[in-house]
From TrEMBL:
This is UTP--glucose-1-phosphate uridylyltransferase. It comes from the Bacteria. Residues 7-274 form the Nucleotidyl transferase domain. Belongs to the UDPGP type 2 family. It holds the Pfam family NTP_transferase. SUPFAM superfamilies: Nucleotide-diphospho-sugar transferases. It catalyses: alpha-D-glucose 1-phosphate + UTP + H(+) = UDP-alpha-D-glucose + diphosphate. Keywords: Nucleotidyltransferase, Transferase. Signal peptide: none annotated. NCBIfam families: galU (TIGR01099). It comes from Lysinimonas soli. Its EC number is 2.7.7.9. One of its GO terms (molecular function) is UTP:glucose-1-phosphate uridylyltransferase activity. It is an enzyme of class 2 (transferase).
Length: 307
């Protein structure tokens, strides 16, 4: 295994207001991406990287998450009696995927506060944080690489992605220095959602972190920042500019496939991209998609020629 780290923290307390009314009674993390809820992709990623101990930081109306990773004896019996062993295996797979624990966030005070709620479970050891809005393609093992970097450098590690400067104000942005590895940089500064046109770079933080336990000490004294919330980015900034014994902060620049399920348009794109690549769906879905795209192009051409 790449690292001795075994614990993953997944904050899932958000209300998902961008997907209302679909998320009025269902957690946004349970929205299906093809035929699995978004949260299952994230847990599968953690497990594939060796993180079998998963803590979800939840909020109100999140019981569907717990139910998804729990046994459903009645459903299993129905599928078994029908002889539908393929669906039975999929249902049991989610149940046996990881050792999943839950803690309530309580007051919604931001991502930094959600991470702080994991302190008692994590203890004084490094751990990973995975945000559910970002699905990383299983063919591009970002988290495994981050664990390697954490182990070799004994540092805190964040995932970075090059974004168009026009959207840099939507992310936490890093100022960096090169290292002796092409995909690893040392972070010298971080700013959460800088004003448009003021971002120090186009390297954006995406939702994967491998944190040393010192982050808890910093979060306990971090004042509310952007949006009146306790920002994890602010605590990471303190680590990046802190004493050498804290290990500093490094970034892994990710150049693989990432699917953003954080808003409606990107969520739809994620479904199309993942379905297109599926061995069981892609061969039938891709030709239909090409025909549909051609129909759209034809309609647009007709409209542009209209008087």
């Amino acid at each position: 295994m790449a690292s001795m780290i075994t614990k993953a923290v997944i904050p899932v307390a958000g209300l998902g207001t961008r997907f209302l009314p679909a998320t009025k009674a269902m957690p946004k993390e349970m929205l299906p991406v093809v035929d699995k809820p978004a949260i299952q992709y994230v847990v599968e990623e953690a497990v594939a990287a060796g993180l079998s101990d998963v803590l979800m930081v939840t909020g109100r109306n999140k019981t569907a998450l717990e139910n998804h990773f729990d046994r459903v004896g009645e459903l299993e019996d129905i599928l078994r009696n029908k002889g539908d062993l393929e669906k039975l295996e999929k249902v049991k797979y989610a149940t046996d995927l990881a050792d999943v624990h839950y803690v309530r966030q309580g007051d919604p005070k931001g991502l930094g506060h959600a991470v702080l709620r994991a302190k008692m479970h994590v203890g004084r050891e490094p751990f990973a944080v995975l945000l559910g809005d970002d699905i990383i393609d299983e063919r591009d093992p970002l988290l495994t690489r981050m664990l390697d970097v954490q182990l070799s450098r004994n540092t805190t590690v964040v995932a970075l992605l090059e974004v168009d400067p026009s959207v840099a104000h939507l992310y936490g942005i890093a100022t960096v220095e090169a290292t002796d590895e092409d995909d690893v940089v040392r972070i010298t500064g971080l700013v959460e959602k800088p004003s448009a046109g003021t971002a120090p770079s186009n390297l954006a933080i995406i939702g994967r972190y491998v944190l040393r336990p010192e982050i808890f000490d910093i979060l306990e004294t971090t004042a509310p920042g952007k949006g009146g919330e306790i920002q994890l980015t602010d605590a990471l900034q303190s680590l990046a500019t802190g004493p050498a014994w804290s290990g500093g902060v490094h970034g892994v620049v990710f150049r693989g496939r990432r699917y953003d399920t954080g808003d409606r348009l990107d969520y739809l794109k994620a479904i199309v991209q993942l379905a297109s690549d599926r061995d069981d769906l892609g061969p039938d879905f891709r030709p239909w998609l090409q025909q549909f795209a051609a129909t759209l192009a034809s309609n647009e051409h007709e409209h542009s020629d209209a008087p």
